[in-house]
Amino acid sequence: MSVAESDTLTLPGTDQYDDQLDLEGEHMQLKRLRAEREHQMFPDEVDTPLDIPARTRFQKYRGLKSFRSSPWDPRENLPSNYARIFQFENFSRTKKRVLKREEEEGALPGWYITVHISSVPRRFAESQAASPSPLVIYGLLQHENKMSVVHYVLRRTPNYTLPIKSKDQLIFHSGVRRFSACPIFSQHTSGDKHKYERFLSDGAVSVATVYCPIGYPPQPVLVFKAEQDAHVLVATGSLYKVDPLRVVCKRIVLSGHPLKINKRSVVVRYLFFNREDILWFKPVELRTKYGRSGHIKEPLGTHGHMKCRFDRPLKAQDTVLLYLYKRVYPKWSYSMDVPLPAHWSVEKPDSTD
Length: 353
Prior knowledge:
Number of strands: 15
Structural class: alpha+beta
Strand content: 25-35%
Helix content: 10-25%
Shape: elongated
Distance between the termini: 32 Å
């Protein structure tokens, strides 16, 4: 067979393959993969906008001398959704008291009990009578009927390789409950502030924060993602704690480049593009990728050049960074209306099936 003949050869079933291919979904997954790869290469870096002032674009952000030790009031500028949730004065003490009461007053394993249920809808009773499945009844502990900010410790499953962004809709199987929500992810660290993660990290433990009914540790959780007609297992873990005052901070990094270096005095460009932005962010400390620290001394001209001074001389290949932070909250996206899938899976379903 010649090369020309092989070029015109059509494989059998190609038309059917293209009909089954979701081209828009393929493009969306490609965009998400590129975004995750860019985040891994340049974590939290964003470009300073040219069309609007940086002091307007980043007006909700603030600079911190030290992310670990600088103070942050956890009750500052709380969103309106916090008026709808329940907060414990001491969650650990309440948990011990509630679980101890349950051990003393609840029915023990192995007991035979009779349950009388009132006000049952006729439709439910008739459907249950015709169904071969047993009726599952469960009770709630104290406060478990109330909404709050709940944190789950999660680890990604190795079988699911696609990126999972913060605020993606996921399906939680937590204890006896099944619900959907859009969590935000953060690092599982000690301290009073925790760094927001744009993607659920692979190979490390992350904390997922959602608005949902209260539970008590160590309640297990399975997290699924709706893919086509299946629910795919993407993460496993347990309930960490219930704490509306846990501060999750989103970090952005603005970058500039040295133009002239005179020992510790440096002229930096591309960090800002007008004089007013330089004066606005002048109190914020500067860092470099090679570990230097410094501050802005004064703007030069009106096009974003500025004179800076650092603790040690800079190298020409170094990059000047400015870190900004703001507190983020999850969306109120809790929903118990989760339709059952055609099948469950621990791997991403093959779209060619």
